[in-house]
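User: Show me an example of a complex going from sequences to structure tokens.

Assistant: Sure. Here are the input components:
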Amino acid sequence: DAKTTQPTSMDCAEGRAANLPCNHSTISGNEYVYWYRQIHSQGPQYIIHGLKNNETNEMASLIITEDRKSSTLILPHATLRDTAVYYCIVRVTTSGTYKYIFGTGTRLKVLA
Amino acid sequence: KAGVTQTPRYLIKTRGQQVTLSCSPISGHRSVSWYQQTPGQGLQFLFEYFSETQRNKGNFPGRFSGRQFSNSRSEMNVSTLELGDSALYLCASSPGQGTYEQYFGPGTRLTVT
């Protein structure tokens, strides 16, 4: 199964862009990269996902390198409410079924 | 739409007992996945059910089992509880399999004493 590697923690100033890296060097060609975040005591919340191309939605942007071995989640203007643990996940496909392999996550602290 | 609900929210059990946790997915969602979250191991996939069939299973012992009903509600059962089973158990639902995002419930915090 593909694994992801993320920095344990990061700080970001409020209003600045938060760039969260993820390494998934063993990812296979049909495996998607997902990002979720978990705010203390809550269930994880979906942010964005992608396969090859860069993706953007109202919450964030996802930049995937051409070789697909790494990606970066960008929160364009971080707020205090973005303080959370961010998980980079690979969705593994096995015989037509899917499961999500969570990394250890990056604890992002947005500073006022 | 109501979100994913899990009951109970908190549970304390004794070693050797068994426990059943319940998950009600978002209306219309047919896929339910279960995860175990602990400080040491992080979030680990337990199993996924789709249309009452277990479609995928993580690397957990047979003491962990689950089922899904015709209304998509799901239960997971842990038998012969061990201290190491203390964790936050999360349920997630999605419309189906594929590139759908998963919507997580608040979790059930199980403490085994």
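The lines above are the inputs; the final block is the predicted structure for all two components together. The radius of gyration of chain B is 13 Å.
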